[in-house]
Design brief:
By secondary structure, this protein is an alpha/beta fold. Among the domains are: about 100-255, 2-Layer Sandwich (Uridine Diphospho-n-acetylenolpyruvylglucosamine Reductase, domain 3); about 260-295 and about 315-365, Alpha-Beta Plaits, CATH 3.30.70.2190; about 515-640, no CATH class; about 700-870, no CATH class; about 885-985. The strands form seven sheets. A five-stranded antiparallel beta sheet has the order 5-6-9-7-8. Strands 1-2-4-3 form a four-stranded mixed beta sheet, covered by helices on one side. A hairpin with a 4-residue loop joins strand 7 (about 165-175) and strand 8 (about 180-185). The chain is globular, with a radius of gyration of 30 Å.
Length: about 1000
Amino acid sequence: MTRDAGGVDADLVAALRSAGVGGVDGSPMRRSLYSSDASLYRIPPRVVAAPRHLDELAAVLQVCREHAVPLTMRGAGTSIAGNAVGPGVVVDVSRHLNRVLEVDAEGGTALVEPGVVQAELQKAAARHGLRFGPDPSTHNRATLGGMIGNNACGSRALGYGRTSDNVLGLDVLAGTGERLRLGAMDNPTASSPLLTDLRGVVRDGLATIRTELGRFGRQVSGYSLEHLLPENGFDVARALAGSEGTLALTLAARVRLVRDAPVRLLVALGYPSMADAADAVPAVLPHAPVACEGLDARIVDVVRERRGPAAVPELPRGSGWLFVELVGEESGAVQAAAARLVADAGALDARVVTDPVQAAALWKIREDGAGLSARTPDGAPAHAGWEDAAVPPQRLGAYLREFETLMARHGLTGLPYGHFGDGCVHIRIDFPFDRGTGVFRDFLLAAGALAAEHGGSMSGEHGDGRARSELLPLMYSPRAIGLFERVKAVFDPDDLLNPGVIVRPAPFDAHVRVAAAKPLRRAELATLGLAYHHDRGDLSAAVHRCTGVGKCRADNSADGGVMCPSFAATRDEKDSTRGRARVLQDAVSGNLGPDGWRSQALHDALDLCLSCKGCSSDCPTGVDMAAYKAEALHQRYRRRLRPRSHYALGWLPRWARLVGRSVALTRLANIAMRSETLHPLVAWSAGIDRRRSLPAFAQSPFRRWFAQRSVQPGTAKHGQHGQHGQQGAHGEQVEHGEHGEHGDVVLFVDTFTDAFSPEVGQAAVAVLEDAGYRVTVTDRPVCCGLTWISTGQLDGARRQARATVDALLPHVRAGAKIVGLEPSCTGVLRADTVELLGGEDGTDAEDAPALVAAREVAAATRTLAELLGQTPGWTPPDLTGTTGVAQPHCHHHAVMGWAADAALLRDAGADIERLGGCCGLAGNFGVERGHHDVSVAVAEQRLLPAVRAAGPGTVVLADGFSCRTQLSTLTHRTGRHLAQLLAERLPR
């Protein structure tokens, strides 16, 4: 093996490329990206390949056989047990081998490539009134190949079965290189030496297979050899489901599609405890539910605490619940079935929900709780590893009680829930990996023994992977383990396919990523630019928040989400939040060399991050990649020369104040930016893309207008200040005249409102005064430091934040509220100032003066909609007949949420469709050289198609200056701020 200076396995890369394989990459960045999946494990591959055609996939296998290199298949990498990491070649089929090849509506089947995402198959099938049955929680990013590999199930497996129950045929390459077309495929393989040998293995093990395998529905650990029994038709395709890529590579699959019943309702049943709810499952199952899910008060409490009380609709009395779904052809019959179910279920209380919206709200408790369970109630990380054991449903209640005792004995906690109708329990546990893997090993051995005592399976749907393969002897006899080894030898005699999984397993406590990640040293902590309050001040803990579940790879914009806009544009793992987190984890852990901050791998991974902050709200584990990117830039360029754009765009507030000093300077600056001759020079000197037009500076900044405005007595609805103000004892601006009916509001005059769009500020003043507030501003210009943060100039950002907090604090302590108009700047006041100033006094104490002050300012800061919505007696102007679309700024969505704006518009009578996703400009990102094309591609995801579809008389609501700039640059439409929309309809 030859490695070049960058650590690339040059020989293997060359061999794959010579074989015609595309997308071959052995760079440190790519190896880092694919070193982990959604599991605990980190195993860097030698090379990553993304084949474009099936023949390239065959070529990868051939090269691996010739060079004796392990091969691991990977789809979206959402496997939780370490099923998709390996030390050789990792093959990503999600990039190119992702087509739905055929939908046979009459036959109720579909033919798919292995990399197609389940949700895309559902879209294709839905056009014919069909669907694919299994629905794992990761359906919007999980690939069919991965679902087949792990035999995925989901919440509705009671009704639709496991993936193996829906696989009709497979086209595969065995580890021997032999191609097999199995089951319902064109030209199926009638005979083969491999199949002959496999029949011999089954014949020798009939008694073991019949007594130990296929005992209950969620027994997915090991190989599902029961499908090979003569009475089951020697169904090799179904037997390969759940083999986790250890036997063959899937080239294509034919799967069963089904029609949903037209009537669906939810029965929520309450019990004294979750174990009592589990006891009731055997009484529920005879009623033929499609789904029977269990949860308890702990997970409900976490959802209520972190998502707010409104996230938890009314539940039946109790502390443990079953959510049971019934379906049918006729409403009356289904409701009668629900009444019979309630009568037999022995519940304390019950609620029958026929409204789909209400049912969805209840199901969302389960959905949100599953994501939030990655953190314990006190905010500590909770881990996979023992997250999906299953027992026969009639044993579930007893198993849960003993499992809780076992957890307490080991000093561990977690939030259990699961597919109780199938006997499957999900949980993430707070293993103390900071103390090594000893507790982890002891607990898994004991938990495996407990599940086996109850006749259960180490895995109920996620597969064994590296987490549980070593535990298989706890539930299987040596004879069964021997059969697995013989089957592996038939398909993959050289042990190249996903070695260390199921057969000859790797130790489950080896290569644990979090255990190997040490906290930063004191000297490293001292250089951090942010406080990381939610991670106890440790950046290493912060970046290891990412568990790899891959929600950032899904289309979150359809539900109003933002994460992750650059991945949506490029479909490259390096541009996902997860991919960036993996490279950051390697940087802080020293895996990218002694100075990982300045590594090319980290630079490449972070380059297309828009710093949209969407992940901070959309990621289930609260990853904040915008903060981590700012920290990475801070570390990379500390005491070093920076890119030109950092000085031009990062220092924009300084340049704007300079230009705004005189009308002459403003005109000169605008001429320079508009001149065809000078614009290229300006663009080069500022490090921006020549294709970007720059917004013009306002002839009269907002602060000048505010200082000069004159209001005649009697013109204000609720009392206004007079012509001239004076400075108070603290230097704040104090206006003459009576106080407003509702008191004072400090308008936070950000750089963008002041220098580029003063009309927004003017509209806000009109609206606020009309609502009964006395509007003031600080006596001197202030800046939140956003542009310094986004360019990683955190020392400068801290200085800006400190000065801003000092200027605002006297107002706040006098009882005033702060209103921000630019969402990104408002978000900084609400969140980032606390991170910037927390600990600047040389202490992490919660009572440090700077931290206390920052929190006071944060608590007093509101968006315009938030303040108006909290104003007693205020009613919005009539917007009846106003239609259009709204592009919430990403920081607005992530930090403040857009609920107040939506409620205000609804109450005003406006019909505004909220868009998800990002506008693509994202402050300095879309302006910088090298980002233009991605910026436009991001805008094309949601914003631009929606604007094109909107009629000429409709409103495009966009509070963010970046969003309005992107609109004006890429379309002929002008975005409006909420303040402008309201001001235009004021009664006077």
